[in-house]
């Protein structure tokens, strides 16, 4: 599955590898990879693989799940589609409470004690998805874990998830994308180590040289 999804993401440019001309993130970090998993929504064949894959993760890893909660905004559509496949209710968590109406941060009906899985498109340092987990826990939900499309596997992200006591299962990951990218000619074999060096320490730019 991780190789299938890696091929899918590369084929539509949802994951774009450019080790010789690094992208610059908002934080200023130079990166050999750029991710935009929203592109999966406009590629029906890839979307089908992704949503069925997420549904399979939830069936296999979180069989007691009662409701899905998407992250705002990227995880909302995926939570809705997977919820439809599984015949399961869904909602989503805003990045902050609304400043009007009822002031909701969590949209959709969520009961206290309800067993919940968070649906996320991308995990890098883990900060935003952990905020969602915290909001759900504060609302009384039992968060079983996260189902995500792609994870970088960065040390900081792994440490944050472990500290929060939350499990994440991703369809694909950075290592798989690097390996498949080289196999399919998106990058050269010698670029794999550049990508992995970036993954291990994004603030160290020595991989560029």
Write up what this structure looks like:
38% of the residues are buried. The chain has 209 residues and is α/β, with parallel strands linked by helices. It has seven helices and ten strands. Helix 2 crosses helix 3.
Tell me, what's the shape? globular
Work out the number of β strands.
Answer: 10
Q: Radius of gyration, rounded?
A: 17 Å
Task: Please count the helical segments.
Answer: 7
Spatial order of the strands in the main sheet? 7-6-5-8-9-10
- Class by SSE composition: alpha/beta
Low-pLDDT sequence parts: 98-103
Task: For the record, give the distance between the C-alpha atoms at the N and C termini, rounded to a whole number.
Answer: 33 Å
Strand content of the residues, in percent?
15-25%
Main beta sheet: 6 strands, mixed
